[in-house]
């Protein structure tokens, strides 16, 4: 799955209400089959917008999303339905993403039927299988969403997504609405399902510990642009972009032995409606130079070993 958004100006007003405007700005990402790509950044940086754009819920005003090397821009009818089936999104809030009046079994039956996933006589057995897959008891099919805990509801949402046999799962803050004690169970379920089913996962989260735990690669987003992307281990151990360094240093749980190393960013996150010139980070960057105000840095480096968008930082040389 390849997402490319290449107009350099803020031209993507995605939310319907002016209050919630978020923008993406020149984002280009490739999601490799079978990997988990983590997306991190402060809230309001465009993470959710990116997730939704990739899932096809927002249409970029410029740029394209290609799937298996083919542009999805002109998808209609059967091709559009097929894309919508193969790329499934799971939302943050398990309390509002499930229809409160539909029994779990009916919810799954509906998904299976809409996409013609199996013959009518096999639907019941498939529902049992799906509940087994997400480790819910089979009698869950008879119940309504309100009869479940938040963690169980997220399992139901995962079962619904899996019912249509997707290739890509996009999880936007999958567990951030859940109790910490439940988060690990749901995330570990996701990991084992990924393994079992060979899923490709886009994992959007503000919790850096979680992202590090689940991701093969990580992309750091600042004001709608990718500022650094690379192998998760390397990026967490040795972030290169000044923004990645600050973001990671602010997560104390990542480095329990190192205290007092937090890089405090001065200045507020600028409004996405008024992105600074040059490097959008220059007003908060501890090492900014004149060139940073003038020219926007582009992502450089090897997509495999890591890429950084900064005038003063060299990407890894290999
Ligand atoms: Fe800082 Fe300049 Fe690099 Fe931007 S380009 S991160 S302002 S050093
Ligand atoms: Mg969000």
Automatic annotation (TrEMBL):
SMART domains, from UniProt? AAA
Keywords attached to this Swiss-Prot or TrEMBL record, sorted alphabetically, are: ATP-binding, Nucleotide-binding, Transport
UniProt domain ABC transporter: residue ranges: 1-248
> In the record, what terms sit under GO molecular function?
ATP binding
Topology of this chain in the membrane: Peripheral membrane protein
Cross-referenced SUPFAM superfamilies: P-loop containing nucleoside triphosphate hydrolases
User: According to its UniProt record, where is this protein located?
Assistant: Cell inner membrane
For this protein, the record's Pfam families field holds:
ABC_tran (PF00005), oligo_HPY (PF08352)
Keyword Iron among record annotations = no
| InterPro entries per UniProt | AAA+_ATPase, ABC_transp_ATP-bind, ABC_transporter-like_ATP-bd, ABC_transporter-like_CS, Oligopep_ABC_C, P-loop_NTPase
Family note: Belongs to the ABC transporter superfamily.
Q: What is this protein called?
A: ABC transporter ATP-binding protein
Species of origin: Maritalea porphyrae
């Amino acid at each position: 799955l390849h997402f490319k958004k290449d107009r350099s100006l803020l031209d993507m007003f995605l939310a319907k209400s002016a209050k919630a405007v978020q923008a993406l700005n020149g984002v280009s990402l490739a999601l490799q089959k079978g990997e988990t790509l983590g997306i991190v950044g402060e809230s309001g940086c465009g993470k959710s917008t990116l997730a939704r754009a990739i899932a096809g819920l927002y249409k970029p005003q410029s740029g394209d999303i290609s799937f298996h090397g083919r542009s999805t821009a002109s998808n209609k009818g059967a091709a559009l339905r097929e894309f919508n089936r193969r790329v499934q999104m799971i939302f943050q809030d398990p309390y509002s993403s499930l229809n409160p009046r539909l029994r779990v079994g009916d919810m799954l039956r509906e998904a299976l039927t809409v996409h013609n996933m199996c013959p009518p006589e096999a639907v019941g057995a498939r529902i049992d299988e799906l509940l087994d897959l997400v480790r819910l008891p089979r009698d869950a099919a008879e119940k309504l969403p309100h009869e479940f805990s938040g963690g169980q509801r997220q399992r139901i949402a995962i079962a619904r997504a899996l019912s249509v046999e997707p290739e890509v799962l996009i999880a936007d803050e999958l567990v951030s609405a859940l109790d910490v004690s439940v988060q690990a169970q749901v995330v570990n379920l996701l990991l084992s399902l990924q393994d079992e089913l060979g899923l490709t996962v886009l994992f959007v989260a503000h919790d850096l510990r979680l992202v590090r735990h689940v991701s093969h690669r990580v992309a750091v987003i600042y004001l709608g642009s990718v500022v650094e992307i690379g192998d998760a281990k390397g990026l967490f151990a040795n972030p290169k972009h000044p923004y990645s360094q600050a973001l990671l240093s602010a997560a104390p749980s990542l480095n329990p032995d190192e205290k007092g190393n937090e890089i405090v960013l001065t200045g507020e996150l600028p409004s996405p409606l008024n992105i600074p010139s040059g490097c959008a980070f220059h007003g908060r960057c501890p090492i900014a130079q004149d060139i940073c105000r003038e020219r926007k840095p582009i992502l450089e480096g090897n997509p495999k070993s890591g890429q950084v968008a900064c005038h003063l930082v060299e990407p890894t040389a290999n």
